[in-house]
Amino acid sequence: MKEPCPVPVDIEKARREELRWLILRALYAARPIGTTETIIKNAIEPVMLDITLLEIRRELDYLEDRELLAVERSRVVPVWSAKINRLGVDLVEYTVPCDPGIARPEKWW
Length: 109
Fold this sequence. Notes:
Elements: H1 11-29, E1 35-36, H2 37-44, H3 53-65, E2 69-73, E3 80-84, H4 86-92
C-alpha cells in the first residue's frame, strides 16, 4: 500500500509557475521585438487549453515586477505587449539561477 504524499500539491500554484515559464519561453522565441498577449496565448494554448488573457496578464505583471520582461499597456487599444529583457534571456538560457515562483525545468544537459 502506498503512503500518502506528505505535502499536498497546490495545483493552482503549479499552474501559475508553469504559465510563467511558458510566457518566458514564448517571449524568448519572439526576440528581439517581443509580441502581444494574444500571440502569447496562442503559443501556450496547446499546453494549457483553458488559458485566459486575464491569467496571462496577471503573470506578465508578476514577471515584470521580477524585472524579467517589460510590458507595454496601450491606452488606445486594450492590448498588452511584452518583450523579454537581458535577465529574462539569461534565465531561459540557464545562465543565472531561477528563484522560486517560476517552474523552470532542471537543466539536464
